[in-house]
Amino acid sequence: MRVALAALATLIAASPVQARERADLLIRGASVVDVGHGRIVPRQAVAVRGNTIVAVGPDRAISKRFGAKRTINAAGKFVMPGLWDMHVHFGGGPELIAENKALLPLYVAYGITTVRDCAADISASVLEWRAAVAKGQLLGPTIYTSGPKLEGYKPIWKGTLEVGTPAEVNAALDKLHAMKVDFVKITDNTLKPDTFLYAVKEAKRRGLRTSAHTPYALTIDQAVDDGLSSIEHIDYLIKAGSPKEAEIGAAYAAGKVTYGAATDAFVDSFDAAYARKAYRRLAAKGVYATPTLNMGRILAFLDREDHSRDEGLAYIGPGLRKTYEWRIERAAKATPEEVAARHKEHELSMKVLPMLQAAGIPILAGTDAGYLNSFNYPGEGLHDELELYVKAGLTPQQALASSVLTGPRFLGHADRYGAVQTGKAADLLILNANPLKSVGATRKISAVLLHGRLLDRAALDKLLAQAKARASR
Ligand SMILES: [Zn+2]
20 to 30 Å CA-CA from 14: which of 20, 31, 53, 128? Predict the structure, then answer.
């Protein structure tokens, strides 16, 4: 008995219940934003080790349990997952590689901890940055990329994989597979409809997700039935909401109407009751949608909005600013009828967005920011996009979910992202206001945790100042 007691005493001494677990960072007294359930959990502490959240819970319990190298007092502040921009572009030619690379810290300064690059013409660099960010050698958001996109022969886009036959599609997908791309982007500038369908089918067979601009000659249902995973730009959902979708598409394919006239015809023939059914059907098929709503708004109102004094211009390089002229010149040539048609399309887009949400189509928040896409600023643009979602009728919770929940789910990383929870990535925002009350609170950033690294307000301001200094050279 005495021996047993002595053994027990030794055991107790060897496992001191008071010993605290180690954390690199402890965020104390915070309100945790549970985006999934649309609620705030008050007085929480978040313990971070390396690039992972190791515990979240009542402040007193967690702060007793962990000894941290650094502690932040986040009383009165709100902790939520870092933002994802699910549609950006890095591009504009080899001479703009440095300017594109400089956008990486800019995204972080605006609280964007992940971006999805939807193809352009500098894929080799983007793939390098993806690896360097993942290894912690480059300060930037986590990058998911399509690599070069699939297109038809001689498209207006540079840096694409041009395909016109099944064999060419196979070879292109082999190439993308070797690059370990995160999804496949397909656009329809010169791509033939049958090649398009073969590409989505074959990509699906290989287990690759696809994002596309669907050729007008095909209905959106045809594309989705063959395996399309996400529809980029809300225009294609307006198209799906027209009872004349197939008819107008056939007229375009036969060369009877121009692309612009077909676009206007989809808008003019849009029918809300028909569209609701179509969206429910598409939702049941599991397709996602990236509306890029604000890009459409910016382009629609280039006739009356003066962007020359936008603050965002100061953070991007002169080469990127120059690529903005393409859209401006095109807009300047528009006739009053064309301008009116664009306004009308944007007004309809604002009505379509809540219809997609109501139908259950998962919405991916993406900006289309990057070269060419005028005045849609990398970083800032996502906040504009989320605010526009709320203006169109989504709740702040739904808007936030489209960025921090749907993004990871689309790319197959929901286990690692989407919540402030044990085991999730330490990609976090500490905000000065409640984003579930007003989505604009995502702009009020007190600190960003990027892969576990703390960037406080002073560090974020320094990134902004550096971006400005570099851009003005
Ligand atoms: Zn795009």
Answer: 53
Q: Find the helix packing angle between 336-359 and 272-284, rounded to 10°.
A: 50
- 268 φ/ψ angles, rounded to the nearest 5 degrees: -65, -30
Express as a percent the part of the chain with pLDDT over 70. Answer: 96
- Over residues 263-287, the pLDDT tens digits come to 999 999 999 999 999 999 999 999 9
Q: Phi and psi dihedrals of 148, rounded to 5?
A: -65, 145
CA of 367 to the centre of ligand 1 (A): 8
Identity (one letter) of the amino acid at 450? L
Cα-based distances in Å from 255 to 244, 261, 424 = 17, 11, 52
Cα–Cα distance, 62 to 443 (Å, whole number): 28
Residue 298 alpha carbon to ligand 1 centre in Å: 14
Cut 0.90: pTM above it: yes
- The rounded Å distance from CA 384 to ligand 1 centre is 16
Using the mean position of ligand 1's atoms as its centre, give its distance from the Cα of residue 366 in Å. 9
- Give the confidence band of 14 by pLDDT, cuts at 50, 70, 90: very low
Report the DSSP beta bridge partners of residue 445.
431
Cα(372) to centroid of ligand 1, in Å?
Answer: 10
CB-CB contact of 75 with 30 (8 Å): yes
Tell me, in angstroms, the distance from the centre of ligand 1 to residue 450's CA. 25
Predicted confidence band at 13 (pLDDT cuts at 50, 70, 90)? very low
Q: Which two tokens stand for residue 169?
A: 């599609």
Task: Supply 239's token pair.
Answer: 């198209």
Burial string for 238-262 (b: 16+ CB within 10 Å, else e) reads bbbbbebbeebbebbbeeebeeeeb
Cα dist from 204 to 132, 197, 406, 408, 435, whole Å: 28, 11, 20, 19, 37
- Report the separation in Å between the CA atom of 328 and the middle of ligand 1, taken as the mean of its atom positions: 17
